[in-house]
Specification:
Strand content: 15-25%
Low-confidence stretches: none
Number of helices: 12
Structural class: alpha+beta
Number of strands: 16
Mean pLDDT: 94
Order of helices and strands: HHHHEHHHEEHEEHEEEHEEEHEEEHEE
Largest sheet: 8 strands, mixed
Strand order of the largest sheet: 1-9-10-11-14-8-7-2
Length: 425
Amino acid sequence: MIDIRLLRNDLDLVKKCISRRGENTEVLDLVIELDLKQRQSAEKRDELRNEIKEVSRQVGELHKSGKTDEATPLQESSRNMRVEEEKLSEECDRISDEIRELLLRVPNIPAEDCPEGVGVEDNVVLRVEGGDTLWEEHQRIPHWEIGEALKILDVERATKLSGAMFAMYTGLGATLCRALIQYGLDRNADEYREIRPPTLVLTETMISTGHLPKFIDDAYHLERDDLWAIPTAEVPLTSYARDEILDESDLPIKLMSHTSCFRREAGSAGRDTRGLLRVHEFDKVELLAYATPEQAQEVHDDILSRAESAIADLGLTYRILDLCTGDLGNSSARTFDIEVYAPGADQWLEVSSVSWFSDYQARRANVRYRAQGEKGTSVVHTLNGSGLAVPRVWAALVETYRQEDGSISIPEPLLPYMQGVKTIN
RNA sequence: GGAGAGGUGGCUGAGUCAGGUCGAAAGCGCUCCCCUGCUAAGGGAGUAAGGGCUUAAAAGCUCUUCGUGGGUUCAAAUCCCACCCUCUCCGCCA
């Protein structure tokens, strides 16, 4: 959520920032209008409350000194004031709710240095790294074919169990999946504390990251218990410190989680449906940090370099994109995407979005910090990115490491996790 | 799922079953000052968050918050109702 005081102080500036995303800014005018109304009636309401309190005090004293008859008219007038107070109070609450509803749907302000653009085509490719572009014929087999041939991926049975766009890893395919997770966690354990959070969360938890209310169609909801299946560990980790006041000396706080992630993919029906390109449920290692505004840049770099090296060390080809204002996620101020190249599917696959959310999520989640020796609190910044997203890395890896004889050789960093298996055949 | 106990500030914990300067005793912690060769001990002062108004600022005024939401009342941490959560016991269970 953006700071409403920023809106009051400089509406035009906020409008200019939001419209860089190509978003309509009319709501902001409405918010300002409602905000003014709300403050006016709140002021009247508070005055009335003050009077009621004062009268009550007098009534109390009169009763104590036995002058009950003198108290009666005061009680009468207080009753009348209460009727008026309730009216104002109701109006205030109604307007406040309305403002909140609107504000929850306003996206974050992009970082100043975020590249300008209207859509994916305007994202800036910062660099392309890794393997050569001369791919051998035996690497040009898509992973769904490899998976079937080696019996390490069973999409057909997964569909039987759960419907379209679910996957099932089998045998060494499942082992490889587990190896990637462990690899993703272990290499970041030096600084990031491992958390295994719940994967079903309350509505409030989904609101904090920005996944609700705007993107309700993308989330799985368990109606009976009013719980949501998390689309990423970003969701529970962002609420880890919800409503807490952190010590500045404890920041940055770095956390990581391996969880299942659930996505309805409502807007992408029929797109990327083959194999592991886009699935409703997948495993992912997520890195997340709470930081001061001053620390944010450094932490952003840290998460990006960790996400990048995880892919680089596996010997995969990848590129890094600086997302433009038009493609930036709703809650993000700046995002770098890492895309891995899958030679068999012949596609760049997004495997990590490393984002700086400024105070947008933290304001929703009410995560603050107290600076040493200063009074008052400030809103923290949140940052996160995938340390390792299993299906797409699995796919690119299987395709990249397919040998002429159809087997898959396991890259060296994963060997410690493969129980002695060096080749899948 | 059943029975009982309980949810108060950064923490511990009074206040609730006589409703009225109680946003809240006391202790711990923390900050500053004094004392001290250093440390410890000791003495003193301060110390919740959030909103609004006023102000150049310092500061001041005011409202909200004692698990959440309703109700009673001139007045609610305190009385009533519902719900949530925690703990103990029983049941069930990976």
